[in-house]
Write a structure and sequence with these properties.
- The protein is mainly beta and 174 residues long.
- 8% of the residues lie in helices and 39% in strands.
- The protein has 1 helix and 9 strands, in the order βββββββββα.
- A 5-stranded mixed β-sheet has the order 2-9-8-4-6, with no helix packed on it. Strands 1-3-7-5 form a 4-stranded antiparallel β-sheet, with no helix packed on it.
- β8 and β9 form a beta hairpin.
- The protein is elongated.
- The protein starts with 14 loop residues before the first strand and ends in an 8-residue tail after the last helix.
């Protein structure tokens, strides 16, 4: 006198827009941003695709028009030049005469340059003076100082292992 049932439900829009882009941007890069538009409507549609970019420069026209058959998806590409250090905001919109969809992403930005690590060791009874020399092109927004003081050399070894495991591809073979 008991039973069980399984039901599957797919919830989706009839027109969907997705952004395909890197996880982070580096200042001065030229990047291709792709939008993938899916048409699940029963009829062919002309779709106006727009990409708005904040904190960077859009190189290609922000609006493109594509034709989609029923059940078809197409990729639309834009070129941007990254000018931001903190984050870049991307807004993709896909518009038809029947349905529309949009997507917004905030992508973190990295300053152009090389990450440097400098380690010093030694003992002190009272105080220690350390001199840091930064390149001339480094401004207050581009520089970051992290100071870690460890009572023994073993403390910094654990930190080095974490860095080594993430270099360069985030795997543990190193």
């Amino acid at each position: 006198k008991v039973g069980q049932t399984i039901n599957k439900v797919i919830a989706r829009k009839n027109l969907m827009a997705r952004l395909e882009c890197p996880r982070t941007f580096t200042e001065r890069d030229r990047v291709t941003i792709s939008g993938v538009i899916h048409n699940y409507l029963p009829t062919p549609k002309q779709c106006v695709c727009r990409l708005k970019v904040k904190n960077s420069k859009l190189i290609t026209p922000y609006e493109q028009v594509i034709n989609l058959k029923p059940g078809e998806d197409k990729r639309v590409d834009w070129q941007i030049k990254v000018t931001a250090i903190d984050k870049v905001t991307l807004e993709l919109a896909a518009l038809t005469d029947e349905e529309s969809d949009a997507m917004r992403l905030d992508i973190p930005g990295e300053p152009h340059g090389v990450k440097l690590r400098d380690s010093k060791s030694g003992g002190t009874a009272d105080k220690a003076d350390i001199t840091l020399t930064l390149p001339d092109s480094t401004g207050p927004q581009r520089a970051k100082l992290i100071l870690r003081v460890k009572p023994t050399l073993a403390g910094s070894m654990l930190e080095s292992l974490e860095y080594l495991a993430g270099y360069p591809y985030g795997c543990v073979e190193q």
